[in-house]
Structure formats: C-alpha cells, structure tokens
Design a protein that fits this description.
Blueprint (H helix, E strand, L loop, with lengths): L3 H12 L7 H32 L5 E14 L16 E11 L3 E10 L2 H11 L3 E6 L7 E2 L6
C-alpha cells in the first residue's frame, strides 16, 4: 500500500500535463488515499474480531506463564500506526506460556504500554501464574490467550 500512494500521486501530476494541479485532482487523490487508509484500518479490526470469535469454541487448557518480558519499540515509519495510539514509542510486554495439548507447546500474548514501569509491573504480575488458553484442535501448536481470560 505504501508504494501505491506515490505512484497514484505521480500519475495525477503526469495526467495534469505538467500544469498546475486542479482542485478536482487534489480531492480525488485525498479520497483515494482516505479509502486505502479506511480499508487498512477495517482489515485490522475485522482480523482481530475473527481471531477472537474463532478461538471462542476451541477447547481450553491450563497454561503457566513461564517468561514475562518487556521490549522497547519505536516506529520507523512516517505513517501513523494502524492501531490507534496516542504515543509514538511504546513498550511491549509479552507473556510466554507453556501448555500441554497433548504434548508440551508454547504461546505468547502481548500488550502495549506507554510507560516501561507499567509494562514491567503488568508482565511481572503474571509470571508463574496459571492462565486459561484456547487451543486450535486442528493444530495444537496454535493457541490464543484472550485478554478476558487473564
């Protein structure tokens, strides 16, 4: 998607014959750009919804949070992130859990925080805890730890 926008803008400039860009061309460009952004945002929202509802009927097993880690992230893109955040940099707290279905498997669950202290406190509060995870019956290596199950 990031390559389409410059090409679209270049084609508008070429189409205009090298003359000044008209108001119609600017509005057309903004509408197309807005459409691409709307599709990208909807894709993320629908994808999250599908993942949450699909795993709802999967069998649940107990898992133990074995590793709690925090990593610093700073976006390297000039485009805004797809998930709405009011800050550019963030800390990702990740819980790594181990479960048996039927053999030992591993999975991850992550949350984003603006402050490192909050991320560390949240992650450390689950270290060694037992949680409920949903396991894909067709592929036991796939599991989902839902926020509401924490």
């Amino acid at each position: 998607m990031s390559q389409i926008m410059p090409l679209l803008f270049a084609s508008i400039l070429i189409h205009s014959g090298g003359g000044p860009v008209t108001g119609f061309e600017i509005i057309l460009f903004l509408l197309v750009a807005g459409g691409f952004m709307l599709v990208a945002i909807c894709r993320v929202i629908v994808g999250d919804w599908i993942e949450r509802t699909r795993c709802h009927n999967w069998p649940t097993v107990s898992a133990i949070v074995d590793i709690a880690s925090v990593a610093y992230y700073e976006p390297d893109s000039l485009l805004p992130p797809l998930k709405a955040r009011s800050y550019n940099r963030y800390y990702k707290a990740t819980l790594t859990y181990i479960y048996r279905y039927p053999e030992e498997q591993m999975g991850n669950y992550s949350r984003e925080f603006a402050e490192k202290e909050n991320a560390e406190a949240w992650a450390n509060s689950y270290k060694g805890e037992t949680v409920k995870v949903h396991v894909d019956p067709r592929d036991p290596t796939r599991s989902v730890l839902r926020e509401e199950d924490l």
